[in-house]
Write a structure and sequence with these properties.
Helices cover 49% and strands 16% of the residues. By secondary structure, the chain is α/β, with parallel strands linked by helices. It folds into 3 domains: 3-85, Arc Repressor Mutant, subunit A; 89-140, Helix Hairpins (Orthogonal Bundle); 149-273 and 285-323, 3-Layer(aba) Sandwich (Rossmann fold), CATH 3.40.50. The strands form 2 sheets. The chain has a 7-stranded mixed beta sheet with strand order 5-4-3-6-7-9-8, with helices on both faces. A two-stranded antiparallel sheet has the order 1-2. The longest helix is centred in the middle third of the chain and has 16 residues, at 137-152. The chain is globular. The relative contact order is 0.09. It binds S-adenosylmethionine. S-adenosylmethionine (SAM) binds next to helix 11 and strand 4.
Length: 324
């Protein structure tokens, strides 16, 4: 077959992505890493059909994720990258009952997003991503963990590549569990920080900031960034926040920052349209938008904010500093 045709077939195939996700959801990489087993031995344990499991395992062998072992299968070193303890965020991203793995299944309804410009997530689940997280604690925990894990490698770069010491007080708006705010404050002992996030996540942030011994220099508020924000800070950080929202909602968040401190800086950290795949993820999961520099300038201008500088803080993220 024409290699281009083959390539297109491979690119458009749903089988392998779903096989990997089902393998992770069933816990196969972990289960078969230490104790090889046959499909017949595993099926009752996992409450699945033995013949179907055999087909799945055979495809995992084709992918190099599992290998035959006697009459059964075991996880290869490549497949072990999918294990819970592999420390690479993959398991949490692919598990169908984690926040991201579950949300990715909404890609089946990508056509809805393309037709309407809205998220496909509610088509599949009946309500939006954030409402699901509020109602299902394990999804909220998985999402917070996903955010903290992806931030881990970035933290030293973000702290190093931007001069945070200019600010006496920083509000981290939608700051997650606070690992970035903690590192910024550790590196800048004169600074104080205030983190705002939804209550369940704010609870985790209090614990993290407490572990860093920063309780006396930080405040944590459980609440919405669509409501008034802590007033009078020198800077308001929106790290990977605006891309989760459409323009109308992004305007409401920016308005809250400006209202809280008309002379404060607004620091927007985003990927500036560098990954087309990521753009589609924002659309399908959240009805969000990945924007370019000019889109941010236009959004901010409506609030009297002017772009003062652009700093690449990590390979995939730029910090846009806005001032009034
Ligand atoms: C993509 S995460 C980014 C988290 C953090 N800034 C980071 O970069 O790791 C978006 C964050 O916004 C929070 N969030 C979502 N809706 C919110 C709301 N209405 N008010 C406050 N926080 C919200 C989420 O809980 C989550 O922590």
């Amino acid at each position: 077959m024409d290699t281009d045709v083959q390539r297109l077939r491979q690119m458009s195939g749903l089988v392998t992505p779903m096989a990997l996700r089902v393998a992770v959801t069933l816990g196969l990489p972990d289960r078969l890493r230490d104790r090889p087993a046959t499909a017949h031995e595993l099926a009752p344990e996992l409450e699945v059909d033995p013949l179907a499991l055999d087909l799945l395992l055979d495809h995992l062998v084709t992918l190099g994720v599992a290998e035959p072992m006697g009459a059964g299968y075991r996880t290869t070193p490549f497949g072990a990258l999918l294990c819970v303890d592999a420390d690479n965020n993959l398991n949490n991203l692919l598990h169908q009952d984690s926040a991201a793995g579950r949300a990715d299944l909404a890609f089946i309804d990508l056509i809805h997003s393309v037709r309407t410009g809205g998220p496909a997530y509610p088509v599949r689940y009946g309500q939006d991503f954030w409402t699901d997280l509020a109602e299902q604690r394990h999804l909220r925990d998985a999402f917070d963990r996903q955010m903290t894990d992806r931030m881990r490698d970035w933290v030293p770069q973000v702290v190093r590549n931007y001069d945070w010491s200019r600010f006496g007080t920083l509000v981290d708006v939608g700051g997650g569990h606070g690992s970035l705010l903690a590192a910024i404050l550790e590196a800048n002992p004169a600074m104080r920080g205030h983190l705002v996030d939804l209550e369940d996540t704010a609870e985790g942030a209090r614990a993290v900031l407490g572990l860093y011994g920063l309780g006396d220099r930080t405040e944590v508020t459980g609440g919405s960034f669509f409501d008034p924000l802590p007033a009078g800070a020198d800077a308001y950080l929106l790290f990977d926040i605006l891309h989760d929202w459409d323009d109308e909602q992004a305007h409401r968040i920016l308005a809250r920052c400006v209202e809280a401190a008309p002379d404060g800086r607004v620091l927007v950290v985003e990927s500036l349209g560098e990954s087309t795949e990521f753009d589609l993820v924002m659309l399908v999961h959240f009805g969000g938008r990945d924007r370019g520099l000019h889109d941010f300038e236009r959004l901010a201008a409506a609030h009297g904010l002017k772009l003062a500088s652009v700093t690449q803080v990590t390979p995939g993220r730029s910090l846009l500093e806005f001032t009034r």
